[in-house]
Design a protein that fits this description.
The protein is of the alpha+beta class. About 35% of the residues lie in helices and about 20% in strands. It is built from 19 helices and 29 strands. It has a 6-stranded antiparallel beta sheet with strand order 2-1-11-10-7-8, with no helix packed on it. About 30% of the residues are buried. The C terminus is likely disordered.
Length: about 600
């Protein structure tokens, strides 16, 4: 039985592990492909090797910049005896002898299943220490793109998805999960599945945080393709936030496990501050909800920071505190129903019924029955009594949407209830009393001949006007991102942000359909765009927004000239009908007369080209 040699790690991450030096050459280095992995930034990927010889083991350098040290002296080729020690980076090895080949096999550790990095050797610290970062130029670009995009993301889920998307583009398909410790426990089973609990035990996660160390583990399985789990800690300054877990199959031809772990660790170093910001944002949102819930009168579903929206919100609060009926005017798609709901939610009737009547959708001959109800046998098909919408709204608010579209007869019926507070169900013989506050909405003006003046003024105890989107251009980016976030909260695949050029396109469009058109546009583009960043070309490709004319398309006009040209064009298209033209323009007839007088236009001049 001949002498066999063994080397044992006395210091470093592999401390306590032993390797038999037999006929096989053992490679020592930083790469996970080495037989003995030394995770030290000063160690080369393949640093040195040990080979068995007759009277000991030979230590040979493999072209490293810092040869292994024997008794503190750099050695490139030396034969070591039992009892000798040598160091590679921070790892220290002892040469010893064994009498039987199997004596040390149980402790032999060929470290191919697990690799780890000390994060102090990566990122900015590693660049300052070693003068370079081990990534490629493409990795630098990826990190820059990641910083630019994730600064706009507000949730941990969106940050994790962005990390997975970028690493997937660089290597192969993967996904990332962010784990935080709750009540002393790590939710590995809940987030990744019970099969990953033995791969990522709590003590390993704790070690990653305590030692600022990143790991890569081989996932056991029966499939042929290798799968790996990568683990890296997340910090904001010195505060530990949790860990990020990357699940990936073989990295592909453009990378190896070491490259993946290096880039993943660098991303985790960058994302820590954004995770902290996302949690702060989440806390603020929850605090805002609690504050709103503790004061039930402070509910406002309107989005926007413009002066006109601030003034509108102030008027809504003022209207809500009064018992007066409210009339909301404005163009189609400006959010008149949201304004009506805000009046209800901030009024003394907030806990009472809020009934919506879509006046334009109910046939004229059925409106009386729908609103007032009917008795059994009141008409053919009335097999039983039915409560009307007015009775259902008793004590609360009845919202009459597009009230100006009612027929003159039905407008008169509404007016009688407004004046007397009583109504009679169809087929009934006596009046019923109700306590209802009316909120109406219409895109018509008082000058519109189809809208009864007395009903208009009776409803408009307090008048509110929904500002068209083109008059609050500064709110367009806020609204667009709000609709993006609203979709993303229900489907993580729709997480997007708008580029500066995309915001410019949206802000420069006229939006004849107002906020409703903007929302539909954003939803459509979000579903059709695969990348996280939406740019101007994505909006042009949608085809629903046309490019605005440029200076080369003709001479520029002043705003006053454009207004005059537009008003005269509307008058010609409306056959010089002043009431209809004012309705199309969204202005009063008196305002139209004043503008025409300023233009010096006579009646005869309006009919020509």
């Amino acid at each position: 039985m001949g002498m066999q040699f063994m080397i044992t790690a006395k210091a470093g991450y592999t401390r306590g592990s032993s390797w038999i030096v037999d006929q096989k050459t053992l490679i020592i280095g930083r790469s996970y492909r080495c037989d003995i992995v030394v995770d030290d930034g000063t160690v080369s990927r393949q640093h040195c090797r040990v080979i068995k010889v007759l009277d000991g083991i030979r230590l040979e350098d493999m072209g490293s910049r810092n040869p292994a040290l024997v008794d503190g002296i750099p050695e490139k080729d030396v034969v070591l005896q039992v009892g000798d020690e040598f160091s590679v980076g921070r790892a220290v090895f002892l040469v010893s002898a064994v009498t039987t080949p199997g004596a040390a096999q149980g402790n032999a550790h060929h470290d191919s299943d697990t690799i780890s990095f000390d994060l102090d050797g990566l990122g900015l610290d590693g660049m300052e220490q070693h003068g370079a970062w081990p990534g490629t130029s493409g990795d630098y670009v990826l990190l820059f793109r990641f910083c630019r995009v994730c600064s706009h993301l507000k949730t941990e889920l969106s940050l994790a998805n962005q990390m997975g998307a970028m690493l997937g583009d660089r290597f192969s398909s993967c996904f990332v999960k962010l784990l935080r410790e709750e009540d002393g426990l790590w939710s590995v089973a809940e987030s990744l599945g019970a099969a990953y609990v033995p791969i990522l035990p709590a003590e390993t996660i704790d070690r990653a945080l305590d030692e600022r160390r990143a790991f890569s583990f081989t996932v056991p399985g029966d499939d042929v393709e290798e799968r790996f789990v990568y683990l890296a800690p997340l910090f904001h300054g010195d505060a530990a936030l949790g860990v990020a877990v990357l699940m990936m199959s073989a990295p592909g031809q453009d990378g190896d496990r070491e490259t993946v772990l290096t880039l993943f660790s660098a991303l985790c170093e960058l994302v820590g501050s954004h995770v902290h910001a996302a949690r702060q944002h989440e806390n603020l949102v929850e605090l805002n909800k609690r504050l709103a819930g503790s004061n039930g009168k402070e509910s406002m579903p309107l989005v926007g920071r413009s002066a006109s929206m601030a003034a509108l919100r102030s008027l809504i609060y003022e209207a809500a505190r009064t018992p007066l009926n409210v009339l909301v005017t404005g163009e189609t798609g400006t959010g008149k129903e949201l304004i009506a709901r805000a009046v209800h939610q901030n009024s003394a009737r907030a806990d009472k019924p809020y009934i919506v009547v879509n006046c334009a959708a109910i046939p004229s001959n059925l409106f009386e029955s729908e609103l007032f109800g009917h008795e059994r046998g009141a008409f053919t098909g009335a097999q039983g009594a039915k409560r009307g919408l007015l009775s259902l709204a008793d004590g609360g608010i009845l919202f009459l949407d597009e009230v100006g579209d009612l027929s003159p007869e039905n407008q008169a019926r509404i007016l009688r209830v407004l004046e007397q507070g009583t109504f009679r169900p169809v087929g009934a013989t006596k009046e019923e009393q109700v306590d209802v506050r009316f909120v109406g909405a219409t895109s018509r003006t008082v000058e519109d001949e189809a809208f009864r003046d007395d009903l208009y003024y009776r409803l408009a105890g307090f008048a509110l006007h929904a500002v068209p989107l083109r008059e609050r251009v500064g709110d367009i980016p806020i609204l667009a991102q709000y609709f993006m976030d609203l979709m993303a909260s229900g489907d993580e695949r729709l997480i997007h942000i708008l580029s500066e050029d995309a915001i410019g396109v949206l802000s420069g469009y006229y939006w004849p359909g107002n906020v409703r058109q903007l929302r539909n546009t954003i939803e459509r583009i979000a579903h059709r765009t695969a990348t996280p960043l939406i740019n101007a070309e994505d909006i042009w490709r949608d085809g629903h927004i046309t490019r605005r004319p440029t200076a080369s398309d003709g001479p520029l006009s002043t705003l006053a000239e454009m207004e005059r040209e537009h008003i005269l064009k509307v008058l010609r298209n409306c056959a010089d009908n002043r009431a209809k033209s004012a309705r199309v323009l969204g202005i009063s007839r008196s305002t139209l007369y004043l503008k025409l007088a300023d233009y010096g236009e006579s009646d005869s001049s309006l009919t020509g080209d």
